[in-house]
Amino acid sequence: MGAKIKLQRKGTKNKPFYRVIVQDESAATKAAIIEILGTYDTSKEPSLFHVNEEKTKSWLAKGAQPTEKVRILLGKAGIMEPVDLPGLHQKKSKKEQKADEEAAKAAAAAEKAAVKEEPKAEEAPKAEEAPKEEPKEEPKAEVVEQAQDSKEA
Fold it and tell me: Do 107 and 140 belong together in one domain?
């Protein structure tokens, strides 16, 4: 059983309040909670984050993995090492995602076109070399035949 430390949303519409919980990794979000570690209130300024440090450290020692948001909060609380926020993966807008997909498709198409052109480039010199060799051999054969004809006459 892999445990996960995550946020569970509570509160009413437009007034979110979160509990920091330990839950089975494969369990549904509404499944049984193993343990409640603390709370996170985003409606207050500044946001309030309270966790039981001893319980949290013991769950981390047992191998529980925090979600990305909980990992950031635990870093700010000093329970784990702080996270480099600019280095984290940023979500992209739908327009940016579509632009990236189109760019990837265009790059893939360009690679396919380049792969198709390379064999043609290799075959072309072979085709040019072959006709040049044949005419050189044919005149030699004719010259030899003409020389034999002149000897007979």
Answer: yes
Residues belonging to the chain: 153
Give the pTM: 0.55
Q: Are residues 79 and 99 in the same domain?
A: no
Q: Render each residue's pLDDT in the chain as its tens digit; 153 residues.
A: 689 999 999 999 999 999 999 999 888 877 888 999 999 998 888 888 999 999 999 999 999 999 989 999 999 888 888 877 766 667 777 888 888 888 888 888 888 777 776 655 455 555 455 455 455 555 554 555 555 555 555
Contacts of 8 (CB under 8 A, 6+ apart): 18, 19, 20, 21, 23, 29, 33
- My answer on whether omega of the bond before 46 falls inside 30° of 0, hence cis, is yes
Give Cα separations from 66 to 6, 20, 54, 81, 151 (angstroms): 6, 10, 15, 13, 100
Does residue 68 sit in the same domain as residue 140? no
- The whole domain housing 130 covers 92-153
Q: Which of 87, 122, 145 is the last residue of a domain?
A: 87
